[in-house]
Write a structure and sequence with these properties.
InterPro entries: EFG_III/V, EFG_V-like, EFL1, P-loop_NTPase, Ribosomal_Su5_D2-typ_SF, Ribsml_uS5_D2-typ_fold_subgr, Small_GTP-bd, T_Tr_GTP-bd_dom. This protein is of the alpha+beta class. 41% of the residues lie in helices and 18% in strands. A 7-stranded mixed β-sheet has the order 2-3-1-4-5-6-7, sandwiched between helices. Helix 8 crosses helix 9. The longest helix has 41 residues.
Amino acid sequence: MALTSVGRMVGLQKKASGIRNICILAHVDHGKTTLADCLISSNGIISSRLAGKLRYLDSREDEQVRGITMKSSAISLHFVKGDQEYLINLIDSPGHVDFSSEVSTAVRLCDGCIIVVDAVEGVCPQTQAVLRQAWLENIRPVLVINKIDRLIVELKLTPQEAYLHLKNILEQINAVTGTLFTSKVLEERAEKETENESVSDMSPGDQVYDWSTGLEDTDDSHLYFSPEHGNVVFASAIDGWGFGIEHFAKLYSQKIGIKPAVLLKTLWGDYYLNTKAKKIMKGDQSKGKKPLFVQLVLDNIWSLYEAVMKRDKEKIEKIVTSLGLRIGARESRHADPKVHLNAICSQWLPISDAVLSMVCNKIPSPLDITAERVEKLMCVGARTFDSLPPETQELKSAFMKCSSEGTAPVIVFVSKMFPVDAKALPQNKPRPLTQEEIAHRRELAKRRHAEKLAASQGKELSEKPPSENSPEVTGNAGDTKGEEQQLTGQGDSMTSKAVKQEADKEYFIAFARVFSGVVKRGQKIFVLGPKYDPAESLHKLSSQCSATDDLPAVPHMTCCTLENLYLLMGRELEDLEEVPAGNVLGDMPQLVRGMKLLNQADPCVQVLIQETGEHVLVTAGEVHLQRCLDDLKERFAKVQISVSAPIIPFRETITRPPKVDMVNEEIGKQQKVAVIHQTKEDQNKIPEGIQVDSDGLVTINTPNKQATLSVRAMPLPEEVTRLLEENSDLIRTMEQLNTSLNEDKKTHEINQKTLDRIKEFKQKLEKSLQGRKWRNAVDQIWSFGPRKCGPNILLHNFGGYKRSVWQCLGSSVKEVGKYRDFDNSIISGFQLATLSGPMCEEPLMGVCFTVEKWEISKAGDTLSNSRQDSGELDATEHQQNEDDTPASSCTDEGPGANEHQDRNQSGTNSPEKMSKHKGELLLADCYGPFSGQLIATMKEACRYALQAKPQRLMAAMYTCEIMATAEVLGRVYAVLSKREGRVLQEEMKEGTDVFIIKAVLPVAESFGFADEIRKRTSGLASPQLVFSHWEIISSDPFWVPTTEEEYLHFGEKADSENQARKYMNAVRKRKGLYVEEKIVEHAEKQRTLSRNK
């Protein structure tokens, strides 16, 4: 096909009904980029012979080296189907789990997706992940079952076996879709029941729960993949062929004489052809007949492969002639039979026609966007569409209309930013000269040459006789071309420095889609960041304001001018003047450097700066980390950087006391005595003034002795920790609502759905926290931590205090007692304690702290009252107090105010008593503000309470899925056991000799795991690592032998270092903390004096 011009593409952009925005999603190595190559070759952008080898959309060098896609790339394709022309904006996305964020950016811009599945490997973990992502984003999927050639060449299946295998894969994919559909229906039904319960007064005993209610009434037939629906294509992208059953239905309807509609319904399924009666009958398996799909489709493909692979020339010529194809002599004589096969198949069943026809038929245009998807795009975080201001909700109609009229509001969604070299921009590329410009330059060169020639001739005439001049003229006449090149070279050298400086620049292009209006170059628009909240910002702006006005500062909102607009064409960019609604485009804002560039280029990267000045990159996995480091060195910072070993996150927690010792014997009296002695030794290390009870209750005073705290630590049940992790966003929303209520703000209107979710969350907590020790625990929750939304809980269990986190539900009143001014200090101390634990300064997880006593002495209470009354003092009295007690004005709490209050309470105090009281307050205040003392004391109390319990380290765990053949199974197990892995499941994939091994592996042991397993198995095993959960490491990092059996087994020194201690010491070393270890200095190597012979 001829290359389509940019002008033609621009014309197609104006017809929204003919636009299809799609992305290709799949597991790693299932053939996404090869399929993309085949589709691109149909537009003449690359040669069809290079499809699958060039990997056109993998433009990065590391993508080509590793053979996997690492970033999303877009290209626009032109497709003609009958009289209708289509513009297909295609986005290729990565399949590796480390680059899941790139998949998210692609899905957000599209209306549909192509799910690619390997015909041999079937449904893999990432296949399920992308199906779920497509479902959640409400985009319509179509299916391509790829690599069917592997069933013929590698597995050597018969057509009948291949049909059953394909049928099984289709059922697996539909099972995933069915699970997603069922969960959605049941969730909607649960919401309706909740609404009905609030209205009806039916008693709980009268209700009968039927989980299937609602599923039968809902039509889900359009959700599933089925060849007769036209949303499945069978293909081999590497061999260039693919088909939907409608192709064969049209073909055989003429030969057999059966209507295409009938064949379309029966080509896939349990049907067979009765050749005598020329009828299609049902029940092929029961009667031992070949299914119609095998007889009419697969048999032909299998026979073609067999003929080409065996070099059966007669049979090949017969097939080519019957199909009416023209195969070149070069392909026919090629040594590789795959080349010959590709030439035949790509003409007979072109994959681009099959896939793009399916896309045009089944994927909706931008005009058909669903209301549910629009609402999801407009909401950020935990916000619901109903809670948005009315002005914002009105934009929904603009999304739905997708209008390109001048009056329509301009709405552009930016999914990510990606870097581009300055030399790759269209305006910086060398433009080919026109014929007029070439003629002009030639004339200019000739004129200058003639002037130079005339000047030299005039000079020579004065020095030499005329007879000697003619050879010189002839010689100079032949140098015209060289002179022209020299002039051009001089012109280029003048701008070389400027071009070089420009080429060193790195520009950022916004990967975006226009949902409404027309975007034009030079247009000024508002830019709303991901944290922009219309409820807080709209009241600051007038209803008639525009981006060109002088506007007040609004959080997370700015204005920018669209400098350049580009049509994304894979590795190339084409200039555009305007882009109407429904299209994907690129836009270039200003240049930013270094780490900011990396953070901007990859939405899944976090950049942190430590106190030491080191920059920390937080990435999704090992491959992702390597790509980010390469980008930083070669593209963004362009400097050599010193890189440390990867930093692995851990968590700290506590457990119940163990029932067996390290040699799996029940802990008896001897062990208890040893533990008591050990506890006494530990208590000697506790500073003076801190009391630790036998059951772990820690009592501690503030440095000024004005307040006493008693804190106990307990492990949370696993289901509670999991619940807190899953609802972190909801907890954060609760914190925002409570803050607004405390500050008497009304910016956060409490949505009913949010309240229902909070109530449901509270009920789940109450269900999980049952038993005597958890009585009334949920109502006593004071805070969550760290960062007020983590998996740890702070409870208050002392009298005279009522505040809790459930204020937004109206279940608590505002605290007005003596604790009101300092309760935030206790919470701050808890947040600091949970952010860095005592073992290795890592965050805590699954720990509950209970404040069982909080006493404030009379002097401390006076401090609180002084803060309460400080607002009522006028400026004159306050100044007078400061003048009377200049030495006492060192703290924020204002001791002068305390003295003023004491004088009011007892005016008969003698000067001696007054001076003594003043001295006591001065002594207390030299420790700093009382609120600061409470923060530090609470933090220390939590740490000591934690140390009074058995401490454990928690490791991040990967779920590891490995596909390996039987001969390398032992090597896979060896690598897993070496890296502390644990096998969960092993099963053989049906119809193959491939085993699927599911295991868990600590993240700390995962670096280099994939490379090692490939080396040990000679590339026959490939792992896929996905973060799964946090797991407690069973060994105690502080364990020492205490019983006789443990001494015998482990030795007195217990030299065999346990896993938890190894990880803990590694983290402590990295953070510069003290590590108890023996360092050998001035060691001498032992040697023999005599020489070995």
